[in-house]
Write a structure and sequence with these properties.
With about 525 residues, the chain is α/β, with parallel strands linked by helices. Among the domains are: about 45 residues; about 190 residues, Nucleotidyltransferase, domain 5 (2-Layer Sandwich); about 110 residues. It has 16 helices and seven strands. Strands 5-4-3-6-7 form a five-stranded mixed β-sheet, with helices on both faces. Strands 1-2 form a two-stranded antiparallel ribbon. α6 packs across α15. The chain is extended. The N and C termini lie far apart (about 80 Å).
């Protein structure tokens, strides 16, 4: 045979072999699919047999029971089948044994292709068995890392001139710390409520030795850096048409000894929340809880203040401050009734009536499903008068019986409600006010946690720094922004700003307007 004929014959044989190979691969695919379906059927059959065995075992126990209780009739095959179908449906609906698995969609995701590691495996010769890969998830924690950046700044001469590389910015003058280092320190102290000593231990466990005086100095310098930002938060909060106020305490170390021989006193921080701007402002004035502090801050305010019935707040609602409308906190009224105990039927009834105000008010939320402030005000005018009238009548009945002891818990609760009555009614004259003061109290808990962990501020000056830094940290929390990213960015931006920089320039850096470049 000629060379061309041999080549042609070999090509024909090769094509025939390829066709045979394709047919064989199709047969293999069909067989694999059939094996998979058989395997699934066998597994289902085995599971069904196991279920039937368990059912039969249970029925045997019931039938063999010798007690006087008559055993029920065994279920029919149709009933058993219906029961199993119902269980299967529930099992499929539950998935993961009924547990709700959080998929953490907010996280950074890295995807990895996992191939067989068998030495006989050759991907160039293999065909993928299934169209979709099996998904497996693992969550990795990368602890705090510290990186020492060494900058080698070169200097050159050219044409009689010096050219020198620019020194990178630092958080503070003559400091080796970047804004991210200060941000990590402040986040642990003022959001996670760790005392400085524990922060130092935490840093050390991750490879950085920080001494306590340096840590305190960094916090002190950060508070100075944030003073203008703090003043800007104050201005913004006090321009808010609706604010909420409360106070909480912190132990302060002082030089003078108290009657127990300890240099410790209770110092109070006053919290003011802008309910529209969603920012919080903390005030500390030598730890005083007198009316001069809060009146000095909000005496010129124009708008709505919500608070409990503490005397300085009540004074703000008097005729002496005509530009302020004070509204009450119904939750505080309920707490007074709860203090009467579970065995007081009158207190429980009054508490139940107040709960109806909350139940009705929570049926709608402003901003959800097109529900407006005007809609909510109209709705309040419909449901509130009847419940308030019922509450008033019930108070009159209880007091009219003449059997209340003057010093009883119930009398104290009723007196508190009477004193706050007009301020409670005023809540329902607006469509966007809360029935309670829970927002400011919820953020005061961060101070409570810190108080339990850190025990005290080292001085009045330390408490003032705490007020500044808590103001920034909790305002970020209210705005639901990442405090670490915020502080890192703001510290690095403002590190070179002069102390006399106009406060207006800081307005764009406040948490409600901040946008990372």
């Amino acid at each position: 045979m000629k060379k061309d004929e041999i080549i042609q014959l070999l090509k024909e044989q090769l094509d025939s072999a390829k066709k045979d190979n394709e047919q064989l691969l199709l047969c293999i695919d069909a067989l694999l699919e059939e094996i998979s379906s058989l395997k699934e059927a066998l597994l289902q059959k085995g599971e069904s047999l196991d279920r039937q065995k368990r059912i039969n075992k249970g029925l045997t126990k019931i039938i063999s029971n010798k007690s006087e209780i008559q055993a029920p009739e065994p279920p029919t095959q149709e009933e058993l089948k219906a029961l199993e179908e119902e269980k299967d449906k529930k099992r499929k609906a539950r998935k993961n044994n009924g547990a709700r698995r959080d998929m953490h969609y907010e996280m950074e995701v890295e995807e990895h292709e996992v191939l067989p590691d068998d030495p006989r495996f050759d991907i160039s010769r293999a065909r993928e068995f299934s169209k979709e890969p099996r998904i497996c998830i693992r969550y990795e924690c990368v602890p705090m890392r510290f990186i020492k950046h060494v900058y080698k700044i070169r200097t050159y001469t050219q044409d009689g001139r010096f050219y020198e590389g620019k020194t990178p910015k630092s958080a503070f003058l003559n400091s080796s710390y970047d804004g991210s280092f200060i941000a990590g320190l402040l986040e642990l102290r003022y959001i996670h409520s760790l005392p400085v000593k524990r922060i130092i231990n935490y840093f050390e466990s991750h490879g950085f030795n920080l001494n306590k005086p340096t840590a305190h100095k960094l916090i002190e310098r950060a508070s100075v850096l944030f003073e203008n930002l703090y003043r800007c938060v104050r201005q913004t909060v006090l321009k808010d048409p609706y604010i909420s106020a409360d106070e909480t305490y912190y132990r302060i170390l002082i030089p003078e000894k108290n009657r127990n021989g300890k240099g410790v006193k209770k110092g109070y921080l006053w919290a003011i929340v802008g309910m529209k701007s969603r920012m919080l402002y903390l005030v500390y004035d030598n730890g005083a809880r007198t009316e001069d502090v809060i009146i000095g801050e909000v005496g010129d305010y124009m708008g709505i203040i919500q608070s409990d019935g503490y005397a300085p707040y009540r004074k703000l609602g008097s005729d002496a401050y005509p530009n302020i409308t004070r509204i009450a906190c119904i939750q505080h009224m309920k707490r007074k009734l709860q203090d009467c105990g579970e065995d007081d039927p009158d207190a429980k009834e009054l508490h139940s009536i107040m709960n109806r105000l909350f139940h009705e008010d929570h049926k709608h939320t402003v901003g959800v499903d097109g529900w407006t402030v005007e809609d909510h005000l109209e709705y309040r005018r419909q449901y509130a008068p009847e419940i308030i009238a019922e509450l008033s009548d019930r108070l009159d009945e209880i007091e009219g019986r003449g059997d209340l002891l003057p010093q009883s818990d119930l009398q104290e609760a009723i007196t508190y409600i009477r004193n706050e009555w007009n301020e409670m009614v005023d809540i329902f004259n607006y469509g966007d006010t809360n029935l309670e003061n829970n927002t400011v109290e919820r953020f005061n808990r961060y101070l409570s946690i810190s108080r339990r962990n850190s025990l005290f501020f080292g001085s009045h000056k330390g408490a003032e720094r705490g007020a500044i830094l808590y103001t920034i940290a909790l305002s970020c929390k209210m705005q639901k922004i990442d405090l670490f990213k915020y502080l890192t960015d703001v510290i690095n931006r403002t590190a070179e700003w002069q102390p006399n920089t106009p406060i207006e320039k800081y307005r764009e850096l406040l948490p409600d307007m901040w946008r990372k470049d």
